[in-house]
Amino acid sequence: xxxxxxxxxxxxxALAGCQRAEQAGLPPAASPLPxxxxxxxxxxATAEATRPQRIVSLNLCTDQxxxxxxxxxxxxxxxxxxxxxxSSMLAEAAxxxxxxxxxxxxVLALQxxxxxxxxxxxxxxxxxxxxxxxxxxxVPGADGFADAQAQILLVARSTGDEARGQQLVQHMQAAxxxxxxxxxxxxxxxxxxxxxxxxxxxxxxxxAGTIYDDMLGLAGWRNAAAEAGVPGYGQLxxxxxxxxxxxxxxxxxxxxNALGAQRPLQHPVLAxxxxxxxxxxxxxxxxxxPWNIAAAERLAQARRANASSLPQPRPITP
Length: 318
Fold this sequence. Notes:
14% strand; 14 helices; Rossmann fold; alpha/beta; 5-stranded parallel β-sheet; 4-stranded parallel β-sheet; 318 residues
């Protein structure tokens, strides 16, 4: 195991406020994924010695990638959100693993040999860790299924778990292809597919180049926000939403706040439209992963339910 540089340890000794890594202490949530990372056959001693053995993750999305890739014994700490069941799909798997707030001092105290971060968070911590010679991997966010799979492979290379990374990606691709084939068989004409839109507080929506766009397309919906010209994540004004006449409004639900999720839909105009609504837990979309395909499955079920509720054409009698 690599040791933290002497200068880093000296600095830590001088810091009176040095913190210990703390347990999250949040209620558990069932994980939809098998904990296959802990069930893999043991590797040889030589191979094990070359792989990072004290990995710290400071980002919810890298937390969840790490939990799918490596054994618990190699995880020194995760972010505090990892064990939060309202934020993480793998909260149950994260229980019992130390958590950190993200300061350089507490991370250095763990003597990590690899730290995973996001590209737009913990910038000060990232700079400090690199200054002390700690290997840091900044993982870009995922704007679609391909990005999510690239994230897995990137982290897998850094942890020395390429085979496991490939296995996870292949599993995700297989589920994606199976749903795509099912949707194509149901309605091969993409132009005639119904429209749906994410619609949250202040008209927040998701256009082209987002996880939501990929999920809607895979589930057999056209993305009304993308067709209205919303780039990435942005605002979809009510007037433009109505002009698209979506048949489904996808409502993000943060935590257990179902009432808050429905608040943007209480506008009388939306009530008059009688549009189908589907609440989707934010933990299924905030990070890329196999749960995105599970969310797309829910969207496909909503589309089928919507189609079955439409008036059926009457047969023409001669």
